Fold:
Amino acid sequence: MATPKSRTYRLHLSEEGTDIFLECHHRLARISRRFIPYGVTLTVAMLLIEALDGAELSDEVHAPAVNRLTGRIEHYVGASPSLAQAAAKMLDQVEASPDGGPAMTVARLLVTAIALMSASEDSEIARAYRRVGTGVSPQDP
Structure:
């Protein structure tokens, strides 16, 4: 049986989160000078977040910005199935919130990646985008 080339990921964003995702998408398209699928933006965001160590990742996941970007508006984004594997691996590194904050899910990790991408330098985004262009998945070194 052939491996699917894409999978749909569900994002639960607030209005602000939707705006931030679209801003990240536009920014990536401007940096790359290409029309790109939304899934590429999500993949680049995940490549940026996977560079964090466990403590940094935990801090980002529990940051107040992630709560602001999370909401009830559902968006579906097609991206590589390898994002789910990379997300599962990253979730294993995340420490529980000391105050019993929101449950850790792949959906929250995706929103965290979007938040991190919005705060990243253009040069970091360009490097991550080049990794996508070379076929490097988020779980590869």
